[in-house]
Amino acid sequence: MSEETKNTEEQNDAPEVNQTVAKAQTETTEEVAETVEAPKAEKETAEEAVETVEVPKAGKVAEVEVKAPKAPKAEKVAKEEVAETVEAPKVKKVNPEEFLANFDWHMYEEGIEAVDAENLKAFEAALDVTLGIVSEREVIEGIVIRKTDREVIIDINAKSEGVISLNEFRYNPNLAVGDMVEVLVDKREDNTGQLVLSHKKARVIKAWDRVNNAHETGEVVNGFVKCRTRGGMIVDVFGIEAFLPGSQIDVKPIRDYDQYVEKTMEFKVVKINHEFKNVVVSHKALIEADIEVQKKEIIGKLEKGQVLEGVVKNITSYGVFVDLGGVDGLIHITDLSWSRINHPSEVVELDQTLNVVILDFDDEKTRIQLGLKQLNKHPWEALDENIKVGDTIKGKVVVIADYGAFIEVSKGVEGLIHVSEMSWSTHLRSAQDFVSVGDEVEAQVLTLDRDERKMSLGIKQLHPDPWTNIAEKYPVGSVHTGTVRNYTNFGVFVELEEGIDGLVYISDLSWTKKIKHPSDFVSVGDKLEVQVLELDVEGRKLNLGHKQTNENPWDAHEEKYAIDSIHEGTVKDKSDKGLIVALEDNVEAFVPSRFIIKEDGSKLAKGDVAQFKVIEFNKEFRRIVASHTSIFKAQEEKNVKVAQQKSVDTAEKTTLGDIGGDLAALKKKMEGGK
């Protein structure tokens, strides 16, 4: 015995294998392969195995001389070791059924040692052919041999039959015994030794194969529209749920998706995402192929001015798309009607059939501009020839802008009333203050150009010009009540009547208050009493005043607040230049910084109440300048003068007294001397 064979026997010192013929028949193909392996490959197909055996005539077992020693007793023999110890010669092909019918099963039952290697290989090859070799994850065909209320028994010519739940055949309620079905070999043997098959998985695999093939070849497939979804529909194609975008249903926009639900239609597979298992189909692609032929024929015959029949395909805010039989054209909103319209839906409807004229197209004829109104005569050509400048006509307001309003005087003919022609007032306002869309108005024709198709109108011309006799109605010095219409930084505009506006300057609003902005004094819409100060008829200007309607309080203030007069006041505000002091009669005086020092040397502060002396008074500019410091300084000066005068008086009295004494002494002396 060679060293190599000896090692093999030592490694495979296992219990002796004694298997019956019945047991050998029920073994799976994998178990047989594990017991003895052919020398040339890890796994051989039935055909390859048969090629290695030469079988003699029926009833005899072929005797082949084998140089290698007999196979050792073992439950499993390593594939590599068998390959080293067995070298099978080239033999002819054998009939598997004939071989098994003549095989010496008694010899096989006595053990592997009783069978030479060549006969053993022939037996295993024949057994594989009889039972059939299947691989896991392989899709094959099987036959239904039995059907129950819950299960279907499938024969795939393997060691055992497979069982599949009847639920996997719900789509085919007519399934019967004898039908051929596709199944996936999920497991050749589970824990219980049962063959596990799946019809559902087989359908999915086959479905993906068919979908991929349809995508590659462009094949047209049938699909069942299951339901609507966001942006499109869900379609069942070969059992796979595919997405049909709304834009791919038809060449024209679809407004009712529900009409396609639960219908079978033809589609083309246009996109497959293998990573996410997504399929996109299109019905539009089939239609476009047919339309493309028609489109080329139509485009080739297009000419400007040609009139064609089309169907309204889509309506937008800017125009209408018309299907000319595979070619789309656009009617811009301005080419729908000679009259002004707000939206194309006022003129046409979806799916409406109408005649259109080709206005223009690009070089490739992919953008076609159509017209509808051009099929009718221009309204200006039908305008009454008797209408002339100065005539009064009626019309309907169709459009309003800030600068004016457009009036439709007849179908398709409009005139503009500028806002300046709506009122005699020089204070311009928005056209919406005078008219509204839909109003029926009367206007006078101001200009008319039939060649340019332009017309201007006026409303104010239908009323007398209020400035005609304004000097009589509003003479200088007259007092009136008006309405505040607007104000600016320099004054207030007051309307005395429609068309008569006057300006009140900010300096003419109040005699006493210092107004920074007119809005601090009045509001728009307020009634204000004014006096006519100036009137310019030719320039249509009116200068008004409000304070002039009251007596000028400064006439009385002139006497009361005379220079050097002293008044009590309260410090109202303070600035770098001085103080603002509130006096009586709502009169304010300004105290310069050099005159705010008190007698104790401190300065006046906001809120202090003190005496002030008027040092300046200006009636024209309504200005009073006062001083606090001057009061006690003047008193000091007065006291000094009094003191000085008293000193002088005292000195004079002293001098006279001395003289009198001397005279008296002299007199006495003289008298005594007598």
Alpha-carbon distance between the two ends: 209 Å
Low-confidence stretches: 1-94, 105-115
CA radius of gyration is 61 Å
Total count of domains: 7
Strand order of the largest sheet: 1-2-3-5-4
Q: In total, how many beta strands?
A: 30
> Structural class of the secondary elements?
alpha+beta
Categorize the overall geometry: elongated
Overall mean pLDDT stands at 75
Bin the helical content: 10-25%
Main sheet specs: 5 strands, mixed, barrel
* Count of DSSP-assigned helices: 13
Portion in strands: 25-35%
Structural summary, described in words:
With 674 residues, this protein is of the alpha+beta class. It has 7 domains: 3-131, no CATH class; 139-203, OB fold (Dihydrolipoamide Acetyltransferase, E2P); 218-287, Beta Barrel (OB fold (Dihydrolipoamide Acetyltransferase, E2P)); 301-375, OB fold (Dihydrolipoamide Acetyltransferase, E2P) (Beta Barrel); 379-462, OB fold (Dihydrolipoamide Acetyltransferase, E2P) (Beta Barrel), CATH 2.40.50; 470-549, OB fold (Dihydrolipoamide Acetyltransferase, E2P), CATH 2.40.50; 552-674, Beta Barrel (OB fold (Dihydrolipoamide Acetyltransferase, E2P)), CATH 2.40.50.140. 23% of the residues lie in helices and 31% in strands. It is built from 13 helices and 30 strands. The protein has a 5-stranded mixed β-barrel with strand order 1-2-3-5-4. Strands 8-7-6-9-10 form a 5-stranded antiparallel sheet. The radius of gyration is 61 Å and the shape is elongated. Mean pLDDT is 75; it is low at 1-94 and 105-115.
